[in-house]
Amino acid sequence: MIRTFKALSALLTYPGAELQQAVGEIRRAIEDEALLTPAARAALQPLLHDLEHMDLYDLQERYVLLFDRSRTLSLNLFEHVHGESRERGPAMVDLLETYRAGGFELASSELPDHLPILLEFAAMRPLEEARELLADAGHIIAALAERLKRRESPYAAVMAALAEFAGIERSSELVRQLLAVDDDDPEDLAALDEVWQEAEVVFGPDPNAGCPVSRELLAKMDPIPPKDTPLAAPAK
After folding, report:
1. In b/e form, how buried is each residue of 224-233, taking b as 16+ CB within 10 angstroms?
2. Which of 4, 168, 171, 196 is most buried (most C-beta within 10 Å)?
3. Does residue 98 sit in helix, strand or coil?
4. DSSP letters along 48-81, please?
5. Contact between 180 and 80 (Cβ < 8 Å)
6. Is 228 left (phi over 0), alpha (psi -120 to 50) or beta?
């Protein structure tokens, strides 16, 4: 088991008393395994400190404002790929089958594409397979890292560490396409309602639909372009 991925998965979950109590164990797992670079491990310390010492209600409020009320920071990966389009359902089913094929049964109310869930699955795979899995979703993770960095959030360090491990550059074209979408303002409730009620994004057919191999599924994650931008044809 890759303990670092389980630790990072925990850091991205909704903060509760159990998470606060587990911070020391999470810190030790990350340091002892030394899978991440020293700089990446050091960058995680502010978040670990916050989780250990901040008031729990303040931690929970911050988490909700970031990840639950901001679509562009959603931890559900397919949100950045398919939005509310009809392609999202079959992709979700395929990913769930990928988990089952790897002996991973989803025991959570979260959707299969929830990043902490993906990290739990990656923790069970061989290291290089886990690296490929994260690399396939890496442009989304790298874009999340940049968006969180802009907000001066300590959660940016988690995304940056994952993007670095996967070898994803923030300057890549796919990352730039994702970042071209305007950030949500979690305090602007009217604007958020309008965003969530946008017309569905329609994607072309995927010739490999139904494939249960996670890296092939995630490799087809083309980001949603900004409005009035033509959708590129899918890679062949």
Report:
1. beeeeeeeee
2. 4
3. helix
4. HHHHHHS-HHHHHHHHIIIIIS-GGG-SBGGGGT
5. no
6. left
CA 106 to CA 122: how far, in whole Å?
A: 13
For the record, the structure tokens of 191 come out as: 């604007």
Give first-to-last CA distance, the chain, whole Å.
34
Is residue 236 in some structural domain? no
Tokens standing for 184?
A: 């949500």
Q: How many domains does the chain have?
A: 1
**Tokens representing residue 228 in the block:** 């009035």
State the residue range of the domain holding 62: 3-198+207-219
Cβ-count burial of 128 within 10 angstroms (0-12 exposed, 13-18 middle, 19+ buried)? exposed
C-alpha dist (Å) from residue 72 to 75, 88, 134: 9, 16, 19
Q: Is residue 130 part of a domain?
A: yes
For residue 120, what are its two tokens? 């739990």
- Tell whether 232 is covered by a domain: no
Q: What is the pLDDT of residues 199-222, one digit of tens each?
A: 343 333 333 333 333 333 334 334
3-state secondary structure of 223: coil
